[in-house]
Amino acid sequence: MTYISFNIGCHYYLTLVLDVYSRMITGWSLSANMTTEDTVVPAFKMAVAVLDNQERKKLIFHSDRGSQYGSDKMEQLHKHYSTTPSMGGKAWENAHAESINGILKNEYINFENMNISLKQAQKLVEEAIYLYNFERPHGSLKNRKPQEFLNFVQRLATEQRPVFKINY
């Protein structure tokens, strides 16, 4: 989770769920407060909604140690969806999240000096995520865009799919 400044001294909280394999943002929320129910829960539910039961059981949901991620509500959701929570202890143990937060804030979203409603900000974030997922090439994906890479690997047999090592 990160915050996005707007106007002077005001901000919204952005929560993103990133599929590290494809670099696709699969879930997100933007809220005016930091409650678990307004930040992590909607982003998590959006991300798992596109997965079938077998895929959910393989899902490792890695986050920092923020109280929202370790809440009773998230524990219940992990149990309900059969997903595995994972928490890093240091910022560099969640480098993918830090990177995506920086990319969105620096390349796509700049609300500073804007008097913008939450609904307007959510629309702009949705557009930014679309551009990121469908238009932004990634070196780690051989300069493919996340959606393009996902389409590519889905056409391959499982044993032919690229393997990435992820260090936390």
Automatic annotation (TrEMBL):
Q: Where is the Integrase catalytic domain?
A: 1-154
Q: Which GO terms describe its molecular function?
A: nucleic acid binding
Which Gene3D superfamilies does the protein's record reference?
A: Ribonuclease H-like superfamily/Ribonuclease H
Pfam families tied to this protein: rve_3
**Which SUPFAM superfamilies has this protein been placed in?**
Ribonuclease H-like
State the Gene Ontology BP annotations.
DNA integration
Matches recorded under InterPro entries: Integrase_cat-core, RNaseH-like_sf, RNaseH_sf, Transposase_IS3/IS150/IS904
Family matches, as PANTHER family: INTEGRASE PROTEIN (PTHR46889:SF5), TRANSPOSASE INSF FOR INSERTION SEQUENCE IS3B-RELATED (PTHR46889)
Question: What is the name listed in the Swiss-Prot or TrEMBL entry for this protein?
Answer: Integrase core domain contained protein
The record lists the organism as Zunongwangia profunda (strain DSM 18752 / CCTCC AB 206139 / SM-A87)
Lineage of producing organism: Bacteria, Pseudomonadati, Bacteroidota, Flavobacteriia, Flavobacteriales
